[in-house]
Design brief:
With 338 residues, the chain is mostly helical. The chain folds into two domains: 198 residues, no CATH class; 117 residues, no CATH class. It has 14 helices and three strands. A hairpin with a 3-residue loop joins β2 and β3. It is globular, with a radius of gyration of 20 Å. It binds zinc ion (ZN). Zinc ion binds next to α5 and α7.
Length: 338
């Protein structure tokens, strides 16, 4: 079809120079090596009861799944908390366009998901509330996508409403919303969580975020290497080697195809993490540390969301005065760990 292979197709359709992005990602990897290794050493002893050496990747899934703070996140309050927060930020008028299906059906997957059926008029947010940290995190992540979609200017061409080149921009907005459920002041106001517990929740969330970042760096670097000269036969070997390098956990090669989201979706997430840190820096500088209580910040977000998916993330952060892929804000967000 005229493309010079997988990499060429992904690069031209998403408008990203992946060779250049690989250099950025390798920098982030090096810049977070020490904080990751130090925090993992500690977490390994505290939570797994053994030193961080030759541990299999199943432990990584376990560390992602456990939470000591789930009691602070009741299932019955999840939808009402999202609606209450949306109203407080000035998005109350959008709630009729976001159809929330929280009905408890037996075979329904509890994990929240958002569908842009006909934005801005018709957006669906589906969840089966089970409570706990990850449930709230997913609800606010998907809620971020939903508010973004429901804010779109109805007069825009359909292309700008639904056909993005990549998903980095909307993932950035989703990450910003999802991180609120780990903010001590936010937790205190909306869920009545003691500030000291809130601080501990925030530290734990930082660790989990860094763990996910290192895993997605691994997923990207693996996909990049595989399609820039590697052969499919070498896939399992490259996968295991790179994922072990970035996470420190021993990976077997058998998931080398299953653990790939295709066409560098991993890079969309990585771009979104870099962008979310820049964007949050802007929000804090403009509306204060507790920008998330500011209706003015809400109005600002609402204005940006009107443009739907017309611009890529890098264009949006540039308008706020940030350079594309400047990772220093992301690196800084892990301070205090380790
Ligand atoms: Zn998302």
């Amino acid at each position: 079809m005229g493309w010079n292979g997988y990499m060429d197709f992904a690069s031209k359709s998403k408008g990203i120079d992946y060779a250049q992005f690989e250099a950025v990602v390798n920098r982030i990897l090096k810049d977070t090596d020490s904080v990751w290794n130090q925090s993992m050493k500690k977490v390994s002893l505290d939570l797994l009861g053994k030193p961080f050496e030759n541990l299999r990747s199943t432990h990584l899934l376990y560390l992602r799944s456990i939470s000591m703070f789930d009691d602070n996140y009741p299932a019955q309050k999840i939808v009402s908390t999202f609606k209450r927060y949306a109203r407080d930020m000035g998005f109350g008028n959008l709630l009729s366009q976001i159809k929330i299906d929280d009905v408890d059906r037996t075979k329904k997957n509890p994990r929240a998901v958002c569908y842009w059926i006909n934005p801005p008029q018709e957006v669906h947010l589906v969840i089966k509330p089970i409570g706990g940290e990850q449930d709230y995190e997913a609800m606010f992540h998907e809620g971020g996508h939903a508010l973004h979609a429901a804010s779109e200017d109805p007069a825009m061409p359909q292309t700008y409403k639904i056909l993005s080149r990549s998903n980095a921009l909307t993932e950035m907005y989703a990450f910003i919303l999802e991180d609120l459920v780990f903010e001590p002041a936010w937790l205190k106001k909306y869920l009545g969580v003691d500030l000291k517990i809130g601080e501990r929740i925030k530290m734990q969330a930082k660790f989990v975020n860094l763990m996910l970042l290192r895993r997605y760096i691994g997923k990207f670097l693996y996909e990049y290497q595989l399609f820039s000269g590697g052969t499919l036969q070498k896939g399992p070997e490259i996968y295991a080697k790179i994922l072990q390098r970035t996470t420190g956990f021993v990976h077997s090669g058998e998931k080398y195809l299953n653990d790939m989201d295709g066409y560098f979706y991993s890079a969309d997430y990585l771009r979104a993490w870099i962008g979310a840190a820049q964007f949050k820096d802007y929000l804090q500088k403009t509306y204060g540390q507790e920008w998330f209580f500011s209706a003015r910040a809400g109005a600002f977000l609402g204005e940006l969301w009107k443009d739907g998916v017309r611009d890529e993330l890098e264009v949006v952060v540039k308008k706020l005065g940030y350079h594309a892929w400047d990772s220093k804000y992301l690196i800084r967000s892990y301070s205090g760990l380790g």
